Amino acid sequence: xxxxxxxxxxxxxxxxxxxxxxxxxxxxxxxxxxxxxxxxxxxxxxxxxxxxxxxxxxxxxxxxxxxxxxxxxxxxxxxxxxxxxxxxxxxxxxxxxxxxxxxxxxxxxxxxxxxxxxxxxxxxxxxxxxxxxxxxxxxxxxxxxxxxxxxxxxxxxxxxxxxxxxxxxxxxxxxxxxxxxxxxxxxxxxxxxxxxxxxxxxxxxxxxxxxxxxxxxxxxxxxxxxxxxxxxxxxxxxxxxxxxxxxxxxxxxxxxxxxxxxxxxxxxxxxxxxxxxxxxxxxxxxxxxxxxxxxxxx
Length: 298
Hints:
By secondary structure, the protein is mainly alpha-helical. It has one domain. The chain has helices spanning 5-18, 21-38, 52-75, 80-85, 87-92, 98-132, 137-164, 168-198, 208-215, 218-230, 256-259, 270-293.
């Protein structure tokens, strides 16, 4: 009998559909997008005219929390769930390797996350046209592409954590714990390092390494990409006011080219943010596979 990782991926996706995981994620994501778009005007000051691109920027601001949540829910039990239920031994009785198992689980969960996000974004696109007019096609494609990339990145993180963990609790700690750290603790730590190195808080002018460390956070990388394709600023949620930047600072003064001395280095260009997201999807998988390959499953 010849089997491969593609058989695992197909079965994993079909199991997700049968267990209603896929349909539940789609329903939740569509409901989120509908509510976000209906309330998009409330996310901006009254002086801001909300057009299609601005509404999508408001959705992107909220999606940085919601999309990773969908990806983590889809992926964190992918491998450890089989391990703790005892079905992993049955799977490994077939002629494929542990690497095939991890690859198949990854692809299966990527399909689950990607399908949920694409269906949700398709519904959102129709709603945007109905509420705010027809947006530029390139803008919509960029918005959907960055959102899907964020979701796939966190799916890789979730499956990698699932492969590395031996229990469900450890899998939750590795995945959800990492996400919480990115949201609440990443920026305070980086600002603290900046203060320790320079003796002052980051202001309108900052060092290159500070921006780089901020952008190594996949959520910040997503905000950079989404802001670039929408030509709108995408704020963090929550926005932690830790920098010494005047509240009245204009968007032009907050541009990276203005805040840095000299030219913007290549590693701080917008395309580098996509590399960061890809790395967050691939590196945890590599580490998780290594741990799973050397684990005693007895």
